[in-house]
Amino acid sequence: MDRTTWRDEKVVAWLAANAIAVQLDVDEEQDLAAKLNIEAMPTVIALKEGGPEFDRIIGYRRPAEFLTWAEAIARGFCIIPIPYPGFPSVTRGCSLIALPGQSQRIDP
Fold first, then answer.
1. Which residues, in sequence order, are bridge partners of residue 46?
2. pTM reported for the whole predicted model
3. Which is it for the CA torsion 39, 41, 46, 49, positive or negative?
4. What are the tens digits of pLDDT across the range 40-59?
5. C-alpha distances in angstroms, 58 versus 17, 71, 79, 87, 108?
6. pLDDT per residue over 55-91, tens digit each?
7. Which whole-number Å values give the CA distances from 64 to 32, 40, 51, 67, in the listed order?
8. For the chain, which domains are there?
């Protein structure tokens, strides 16, 4: 993503207007990577201001794919289920069904 997505004009503009982007070297910051549960790269984690993790994507995303995800999380949608503590089979939060030009929020 360093050679493509993070250099894309639209991605750069969206991040500048909507986010604070921080890149972590998992080899240099192993404790923080473990605390954030980063097990694969690239991993992009969305954190809400003053709160816990809101969503994450793992694996390469082309600029358009990344922007679809970023716009969705900015509107309050996410793609990961959020488990209730102590009940891993029960989830709260939301999932994202993403079709070109459409998103639908589902609250279990």
1. 55
2. 0.71
3. positive
4. 899 998 887 777 788 888 88
5. 23, 17, 11, 24, 23
6. 888 889 999 999 999 998 888 887 755 554 554 443 3
7. 29, 21, 27, 5
8. 5-106 (3.40.30)
